C-alpha cells in the first residue's frame, strides 16, 4: 500500500507541476530581460480556454496547444507594447492584462463551449514499454504525456542558452545592466519585447496544459492562482528556468498531497488542505528573502 501511495503521489506531483513549471520558465526569461509580467495568471487562463476550444474544434489536442501558444504570444505582445514601448508601470499593465484575459476567456467560453458542453480531446500518458513498468520510477518518469517531456527538455535548453549563448548573455545584460547593454550596441527594448512575447507564449502553453492534459475540460477561472505561484517559482528558482521547474515540482507535490489529505482526514475542513500550496509559496518567499 505504501508503494502504491508513493508512486501515485509522485506521478500526480509531476502532472500537477507542469502547468506552473512551463509558465514559470517563460516568466524567468522575461524577468531576466528586465520585465515583470504579473499578468501570467490571466494569460494562463486565456491559454486554457484556447487550448480547450482548439482541441474541441479540430479534435486534436496539439492544435489546441498551438492556438493557446499563439494567444499567449499575442497577450505577451500586448503587455510588451505597454511595458516596454510605452514605459507604462509593469505592475499596472500586468493587472490590466489579468482583468482583460479573465473577462475575455469567460465571454468567449459562454459564446462557444459553454453553450453545448463537449468533452475535450486530451493528451494521454505514454507507455514506453519496460521503462514504464519499472517500480516507482516507471509511472513517475516514463508514464507521463508528451508535453511533460517537452517541458523538461525546454527547461534544460533555456538554462543552457541563458549561460552559454550570445543571445542568453544579451538577455541577461538587458536585465542586469540595461545602460551598459545599450552602450554595447544591444537593442534593449527589442530583446525585452521578444522575451515578454516568449514568456506569454509559454504561459499560454501552461494554461493549455490544464485543459488538454490535466483536467481535460475548461471551467471559468480554472487557473485559480497558478500564475502567481509560477511567479513565486521564478523567485524561488533564482531566475533560472531549470530551478523554476524544480520549484514548480515542489508546489505540484503540495497540491497532490492536499488532494490525498482530504480523503485521509475527512473530519478536517477541506479548506485547510486546499490552501497548502499557497501557504507553501508564502513561506518559501519569506525564507528566500
Brief write-up:
Helix 10 runs parallel beside helix 13. The relative contact order is 0.21.
Write the SSE topology:
Elements: H1 2-32, H2 40-58, H3 61-85, H4 90-111, H5 137-141, H6 146-164, H7 166-176, H8 178-183, H9 188-214, H10 226-236, H11 241-264, H12 270-274, H13 276-288
Helix pairs in contact: 1-6, 1-9, 1-10, 1-11, 2-3, 2-4, 2-9, 2-10, 3-4, 3-9, 6-7, 7-9, 10-11, 10-13, 11-13
Can you put this structure into words, describing what you see?
The chain is mainly alpha-helical. It has helices spanning 2-32, 40-58, 61-85, 90-111, 137-141, 146-164, 166-176, 178-183, 188-214, 226-236, 241-264, 270-274, 276-288. The termini are far apart.
**Averaging pLDDT over every residue, what do you get?**
91
Low-confidence runs of at least 5 consecutive residues = none
Helicity range: over 70%
The run of helices and strands is HHHHHHHHHHHHH
Number of DSSP strand runs? 0
Instruction: Count the DSSP helices.
Output: 13
Going by helix content, strand content and strand pairing, the class is mainly alpha
Q: Give the N-to-C terminal Cα separation.
A: 40 Å
Instruction: Report the β-strand fraction as a percent range.
Output: under 5%
**Given the C-alpha coordinates, what overall shape results?**
globular
Largest sheet properties? none
Cα-atom radius of gyration: 19 Å
Which keywords apply here?
mainly alpha, 13 helices, 75% helix
